[in-house]
Amino acid sequence: MGLEFVTRIVKTTAIVSALTALFVATYFSPAWGGGVLLGATWNSLNLLLVAWLVRAVVAAERAVRGRIVALAAVKFPVLYGLGFLLLRSAVFPVGSLVTGFSLVLVVILLKALGAATVERMRQKPERTLA
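Now predict its structure.
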């Protein structure tokens, strides 16, 4: 699994979090739905920035050093500052933000289990009825 795995996780999480947020906003509370969506978006951005940092560090060229600094400058103070503001605001319940944050982890787990299952099925010899 390469770094394209992260892109697939983020795309799948966007779909799952949008559907979950819509369901939660309709049947529970709009604030909870928004919190789920924002929590999933925050963690997805965090995951993307980590992947971009890894790509930039692995490339390790002189021109890339500026990009590493820029990505780190966005990731740490800006992204974590926004996360802090989301948690401190009373607009979205903390539980909804944590639920949205956890959606990314659930998608990672299910995608990894699916990939492992497919790989195991490919290696398994076929049985014949003879």
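The chain has a mean pLDDT of 87.
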